[in-house]
Amino acid sequence: MKRTYQPKNKQRKREHGFRARMRTRAGRSIIKARRRKGRKILSA
């Protein structure tokens, strides 16, 4: 049986990348929260 996670970089960036986050209001709030927390990496 195949494992559930079959990594693809393009798909990952499209779904969880910075630009995808900035598109929605909720996504922007996620980035803001991560900045507030002092995350080194904000998104995929």
TrEMBL record:
Origin superkingdom: Bacteria
InterPro entries documented for this protein: Ribosomal_bL34 (IPR000271), Ribosomal_bL34_CS (IPR020939)
Pfam families in the record: Ribosomal_L34 (PF00468)
A Gene Ontology term for the protein's cellular component: ribosome
Region called Disordered, residue ranges: 1-27
GO biological process: translation
Entry's Gene Ontology molecular function annotations: structural constituent of ribosome
Keywords linked to the UniProt accession: Ribonucleoprotein, Ribosomal protein
Family the UniProt entry places it in: Belongs to the bacterial ribosomal protein bL34 family.
Name of the protein described by the UniProt record: Large ribosomal subunit protein bL34
Gene that specifies this protein: rpmH
